[in-house]
Amino acid sequence: MSDPADPTKALLARYRPYRRAAEIGFWIAVLSIHMLFNSITAWIDLRTAPFVQPLAWELSSNLTVGLLIPVLIAFERRFPLRWDTLGRHLPWHLAGTLVFCAVHVLVMMTLRKAAYAAVGASYEIGNWATVFAYEYLKDVRSYVLILGAVLGYRLLLLRLQGEARVLDSPEPAAGAEPAGASARPERFLVRKLRKEFLIAAADIEWLQAQGNYVGIHVNGHDYLLRSTLADFLGRLDPARFVQVHRSFAVNLDRVAEIEPLDSGDARLHMKDGSRVACSRRYRSALGGA
Q1: Do β-strands 241-243 and 221-226 pair in parallel, antiparallel, or remain unpaired?
Q2: Torsion sign, CA atoms 76, 22, 155, 147
Q3: What is the separation, in whole angstroms, between the first and last Cα of the chain?
Q4: Where in the chain is the domain with CATH 2.40.50.1020?
Q5: Per-residue model confidence as pLDDT tens digits over 172-224
Q6: What is the pTM of this model?
Q7: Considering the domain 185-286, what is its CATH architecture?
Q8: What is the DSSP string of 108-138?
Q9: What angle do CA 88, 93, 99 make, to 5 degrees?
């Protein structure tokens, strides 16, 4: 069964070139609004202090958090929070909240001291243990909210893009020898916007590693499967599917043209019109082309 007409495909295609800018812009907007509101609240509480004082405090705090967000996202990719990994990875994230807070406090206080020194004033930190305990209570909340936003956004894209999974092998007949765990799947089940349909392994054009997922490109559509590229390739026919780059693999039957590059690498022109990078390390996989 082929992929039904999908009105979200055009939307995702238009969004993809701006995805990184949109993600960065989102966090800049969120942190800016948070900084402004907290500055106004602190200024009202202080009453007699100039507005620039709480603004400097919040600017140093939110700037530090902004610098830590990419690190936190990378950390979650290394220790993903899913139901099947929660028991193993949750302790890592509990420890991560301590590191997050320690770095936040250290960088934030350094920026504040530098800002005060620039205008000939001094910034008193007070008792470090008290400061850390106070900030930790807030940073745990920030840590959870950031991860919640990242995981929610990722889930939304997954629902729009479609998630594939390997179909379970049928139960062997009585007396028959059970199939091995490494049996090659012939079809994959795709769930997309509450719809389900099948794609054949032979129809896969190329694959791309995407963090904890593999992007499966079929007939101009992209689907995600939770696996590493190496593990997924191990389940496909090695005579048909080969790795051509650290992040890419292709179906040899779907390669239309191999374009050699001066660097020794190559560019693969696929029959669907897309192009896939091929590094010289993997050129031999193309039969010495």
Answers
A1: unpaired
A2: positive
A3: 35
A4: 185-286
A5: 444 444 444 456 777 888 776 667 778 888 889 999 887 778 888 888 777 88
A6: 0.64
A7: Beta Barrel (2.40)
A8: HHHHHHHHHHHTT-------HHHHHHHHHHH
A9: 140
